[in-house]
Write a structure and sequence with these properties.
Blueprint: H1 9-16, H2 19-30, H3 38-48, H4 54-60, H5 64-82, H6 88-104, H7 108-124, H8 128-145, H9 149-191, H10 218-235, H11 238-255, H12 261-281, H13 285-299, H14 305-325, H15 329-350, H16 353-369, H17 373-386, H18 393-409, H19 413-425, H20 427-430, H21 434-445, H22 451-463, E1 470-471, E2 475-476, H23 477-486, H24 490-497
Antiparallel strand pairs: 1-2
Helix pairs in contact: 2-5, 3-5, 6-7, 6-8, 7-8, 8-9, 9-10, 10-11, 11-12, 12-13, 12-14, 13-14, 14-15, 14-16, 15-16, 16-17, 17-18, 18-19, 19-21, 21-22, 22-23
């Protein structure tokens, strides 16, 4: 067995490299010496090890500790050169290095021109910490340029005035970021773990998200509105969340004609998807349907590949949801038949399992509503296979309840009872709600002799609950029970409720 002595960071770094990165490193290292130098030999030896084994390396390389440090630095330098698109912050830091070199060479005017250009970019993207770095550098250059003490004092006061204003903006931004991250953590607790926070206001204060006058700028206003929308999500106030997203969307529309069109388009599209979700959560189906074509426009507008894929999945998922809620289940199935293979193929290429899982949930609910039990069970198994590593307790229990309902529909009482019994045994671990436990206990009592009466008693139990039992946060179990009792299709029941 391989023995691990010393740090294995270098081993893990080398084994994390792609084939392209490995090839580029060897070319990069070759520029610094003979191709078969000791550092490339060490690289190859470590790459060949299935597990880190330092003792073997020490026998071959006498100055191993020093060579590991040097090899680490060389790999990191090659990765920096290999990666082309580091984003705007890295580009600004590169410009800062140029400015620093120009100042050291005495080319102060050129340094200031480069700095002003970089500072403008940092302001456009609201990168406060880079702005502060550049303002301090500009102040140093100006002090070198001016011999007049009065001008030096004015420059100092101006620089520190700008720094004070930026720190206020940064503090304002951090306040909203804190609220946003707390909201997301609470939302994760609710959605993934199946538990809720009874007093979110102990952790979040709505007053923190009020406007802050002079400390506000477009980026902070955007962040404030997002934090507000997430806050109302945690508070389960969908109407208030809708108005927060509506304000955000209107705010982004006003900014779209300004500079940085790509960044503004991304922000507008994010606000659009948030608003559509809020429309769906408040049953504003017509408004959501009117906004959805704009999502498709975002898909076809030459966006980055990742943004294009997420917008496509969102469009498909939202379209299916609207078909389901409007009771247009056959249209929903037709849309699925047209797009399901593309959605599966896109996931295989890009690992978008979360989006595909959401589409499977809609597919299962539509198939169950149409009494396509075989198709529904196949879809359940496909979704379970998709989420076998990262399945949440909520997703697992909803899949199991769906299986129980299908077995009940097929009059397979023994299989249905086995599923229900298993779920009840895991009630605490899965975080079953009071309503879900009542539903399962009621289902367990149903048998062939009293099937119809059992359905009526189950509906009576579920109707008493304060919160409806919904599978995948879509299918209200009361609607499913009503369809079985009355003989109507779920699509007809949904259309009647609209």
């Amino acid at each position: 067995m391989a023995t691990k002595k010393g740090s294995d960071h270098l081993f893990r770094l080398i084994h994390s490299l792609s084939s392209g990165e490995r090839g580029y490193f060897k070319k990069f290292a070759g520029r610094h010496g003979h191709e078969e130098n000791n550092y490339i030999l060490l690289f190859n030896r470590i790459l060949a090890q299935p597990a880190f084994e330092e003792a073997t390396l020490r026998k071959e390389f006498k100055r191993l500790d020093m060579m590991k440090v040097y090899l680490w630095d060389m790999i990191m330098q090659s990765l920096v050169t290999y990666k082309k698109d580091w984003g705007v912050e890295y580009e600004l830091l590169r410009q800062y290095a140029y400015i620093h070199i120009l100042r050291g060479k005495g080319l102060l005017n050129k340094a200031l021109k480069t700095l002003d250009k970089a500072l403008k970019t940092a302001k456009d993207f609201d990168i406060f910490w880079v702005q502060q770095l550049l303002i301090r550098e500009r102040h140093s250059i100006i002090l070198l340029s001016f011999k007049d003490h009065a001008k030096r004092i004015d420059a100092t006061q101006h620089a520190f005035g700008e720094l004070t204003r930026l720190r206020q903006l940064e503090a304002n931004r951090d306040k909203f970021l804190h609220a946003l991250h707390i909201s997301k953590a609470l939302q994760y607790q609710s959605n993934f773990l199946g538990t809720t926070t009874s007093h979110p206001d102990d952790l979040l204060d709505i007053r923190l998200m009020e406007k802050d006058g002079e400390q506000q700028n477009p980026a902070n206003e955007r962040l404030r509105l997002y934090a507000l929308a997430e806050y109302y999500e945690v508070k389960r106030e969908p109407e208030q969340q809708f108005h927060a997203f509506l304000s955000l969307y209107e705010f982004e529309q006003k900014l779209i004609h300004k500079k940085q069109p790509l960044a503004q388009m991304k922000a507008l599209n994010n606000a659009l998807t948030g608003l559509i979700n809020a429309c769906l959560n408040t049953n504003r189906l017509a408004k959501a349907e009117a906004l959805l074509p704009k999502v498709l426009q975002a898909v076809t507008a030459g966006n980055e590949k990742e943004a294009e894929l997420t917008h496509y999945y969102f469009w498909l998922q939202s379209s299916l949801y609207i078909h389901f809620k409007k009771g247009k289940h056959r249209q929903g199935i037709r849309l699925l038949n047209e797009h399901m293979q593309r959605a599966i193929g896109m996931n295989a290429e890009n690992n978008y399992s979360v989006f595909l899982s959401n589409i499977y949930q809609l597919k299962i609910v539509l198939e169950l509503s149409m009494r396509s039990f075989r198709d529904a069970m196949i879809s359940v198994h496909n979704m379970e296979a998709l989420n076998k590593k990262d399945s949440s307790p909520r997703l697992y229990k909803d899949c199991e309840i769906i299986k129980a309902l299908v077995q009940l529909d097929l009059k397979n009482e023994q299989q249905m009872t086995a599923i229900v019994t298993s779920l009840l045994k895991k009630a605490r671990k899965l975080g079953l709600s009071k309503g879900e436990r009542k539903l399962l206990l009621a289902l367990k009592r149903i048998n062939g002799a009293n099937f119809q009466n059992g359905l009526l008693q189950t509906r009576a139990e579920v109707t008493k609950l304060k919160e409806p039992v919904e599978l995948f946060q879509l299918l209200n179990v009361s609607d499913w029970l009503e369809s079985r009792i009355s003989g109507k299709e779920i699509s007809d029941i949904l259309r009647e409720s609209l």
